């Protein structure tokens, strides 16, 4: 009888720890994670309440694969590591194919793959239908001067009210229906329902306590058409969501809402403000850079299965995407928090 290669991690917890350590070291080196945040990454990656398997070759544990299965479109492989000399394109190919026979085709895979060059990683993954994407954490220093722009004419803005919840869910759906981030953070098959969930979880504290002073909505053309939602998480203030109705984008609403939210936060002496963004989302990145945000983690080296996601991460180029990002996934950059 063939020796089963994928085994529960309790077959050899020590080997599991060693392999996890290798992933952590690899990601730290790649993403420039500062000392102060290493413990968090260690904890996220080392958590045993996620599915993981040890990979055995010749009766010895030489690799580890871990995944999360929250996305209805397919699992996310967030841990993939082989020890030398098994860490080759062919070795990883076998491990990945083996894992996918058990868990189904992966939708996302977080790199970098330990022991492979970027060229080898591309060879391994592009041959299996993956394409690259990247995410970064950006931070606005409290001393950064906010450039002021003229407010867009005829657009009322105001704080978020509890009764906005349903409209915020509908706005989220319109904004992310044809957007890469809409697939990246999906947790429910029904996209309308998933948008409601996303908004509800931000307002109810999944990523940290909701911060009313740093959250605003805009009402272009009379209906709720833009919003910035902010939370106070473990590491500080996180802008958890920035969204403008595709029909109202490019009119300065995003810039205005962000400026007002940041001013609201600063009035209360808040420190650095974080957000996470998909690098291909050029309009969002440009907007954040113009406001003074700088990259503090990443860009990450991640992969998605192109045939399963009908929009490109380069949002500006995606048909129907209008113009154009949770606390990080296990593995930096931290927080696959809700877009951004
Ligand atoms: C990213 C996003 C929030 C930006 O909001 P927006 O309202 O479209 O952004 P703005 O209009 O303020 O700025 C975008 C452009 O409009 C221009 N603009 C700003 N003020 C303007 C004004 N008063 N009149 C005309 N144009 C203006 C800006 O110069 C900018 O152009 P540029 O990108 O070429 O530099 C919005 O496009 C969106 O919701 N995208 C989908 C969801 C998303 O990606 N969210 C962010 C995830 S991290």
Write up this protein.
This protein has 340 residues and is an alpha+beta fold. The chain has two domains: 6-128, Gcn5-related N-acetyltransferase (GNAT) (Aminopeptidase); 139-300, Aminopeptidase (3-Layer(aba) Sandwich). The chain contains nine helices and 15 strands. The protein has helices at residues 13-31, 35-46, 89-103, 118-126, 165-176, 180-184, 191-203, 253-266, 282-291, and strands spanning 6-8, 52-57, 60-68, 76-82, 108-110, 130-133, 135-140, 156-159, 209-210, 216-219, 226-233, 236-244, 273-278, 294-297, 302-305. Residues 149-150, 152, 175, 179, 181, 242-244, 249-255, 277, 281, 283-284, 286-287, 323-325, 339-340 line the site of coenzyme A (COA). Coenzyme A is lined by residues 149-150, 152, 175, 179, 181, 242-244, 249-255, 277, 281, 283-284, 286-287, 323-325, 339-340.
Summarize the structure.
This protein is of the alpha+beta class and 340 residues long. It has helices spanning 13-31, 35-46, 89-103, 118-126, 165-176, 180-184, 191-203, 253-266, 282-291; strands spanning 6-8, 52-57, 60-68, 76-82, 108-110, 130-133, 135-140, 156-159, 209-210, 216-219, 226-233, 236-244, 273-278, 294-297, 302-305.
Please describe the structure with a list of short key phrases separated by commas or semicolons.
340 residues; alpha+beta; 2 domains; 8-stranded mixed β-sheet; 7-stranded mixed β-sheet; binds coenzyme A
Helix/strand layout:
Blueprint: E1 6-8, H1 13-31, H2 35-46, E2 52-57, E3 60-68, E4 76-82, H3 89-103, E5 108-110, H4 118-126, E6 130-133, E7 135-140, E8 156-159, H5 165-176, H6 180-184, H7 191-203, E9 209-210, E10 216-219, E11 226-233, E12 236-244, H8 253-266, E13 273-278, H9 282-291, E14 294-297, E15 302-305
Parallel strand pairs: 4-5, 12-13
Antiparallel strand pairs: 1-2, 2-3, 3-4, 5-15, 6-15, 7-13, 7-14, 8-10, 9-11, 10-11, 11-12
């Amino acid at each position: 009888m063939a020796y089963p290669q994928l085994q529960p991690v309790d077959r050899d917890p020590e080997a599991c720890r060693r392999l996890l350590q290798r992933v952590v070291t690899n990601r730290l080196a790649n993403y420039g994670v500062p000392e102060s945040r290493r413990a968090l990454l260690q904890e996220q990656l080392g958590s045993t309440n996620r599915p993981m398997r040890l990979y055995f070759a010749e009766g010895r544990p030489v690799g580890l694969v871990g995944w999360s299965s929250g996305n209805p479109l397919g699992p996310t492989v967030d841990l993939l590591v082989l020890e030398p000399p098994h860490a080759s394109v062919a070795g990883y190919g076998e491990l990945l194919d083996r894992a996918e026979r058990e868990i189904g085709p992966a939708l996302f895979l977080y790199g970098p793959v330990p022991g492979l060059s970027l060229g080898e990683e591309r060879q391994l993954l592009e041959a299996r239908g993956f394409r690259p994407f990247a995410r970064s954490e950006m931070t606005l220093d409290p001393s950064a001067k906010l450039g002021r722009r003229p407010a867009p004419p005829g657009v009322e803005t105001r704080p978020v009210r509890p009764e906005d919840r349903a409209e915020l869910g509908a706005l989220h759906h319109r904004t992310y229906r044809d957007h890469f981030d809409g697939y990246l953070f999906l947790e429910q098959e029904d996209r309308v329902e998933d948008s409601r969930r996303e908004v509800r979880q931000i307002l109810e504290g999944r990523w940290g306590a909701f911060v009313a002073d740093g959250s605003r909505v805009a009402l272009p053309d009379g209906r709720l058409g833009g919003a910035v939602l902010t939370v106070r998480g473990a590491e500080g203030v996180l802008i958890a969501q920035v969204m403008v109705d595709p029909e109202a984008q490019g009119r300065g609403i995003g810039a205005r809402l962000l400026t007002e939210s940041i001013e609201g936060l600063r009035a209360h002496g808040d420190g650095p403000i974080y957000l996470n963004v998909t690098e291909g989302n050029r309009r969002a990145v440009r907007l954040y850079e113009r406001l003074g945000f700088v990259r503090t983690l990443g860009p990450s080296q991640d992969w998605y299965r192109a045939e399963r996601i009908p929009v490109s991460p380069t949002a500006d180029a995606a048909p129907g995407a209008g113009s154009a990002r949770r606390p990080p996934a296990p593995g930096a950059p931290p927080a696959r928090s809700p877009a951004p």
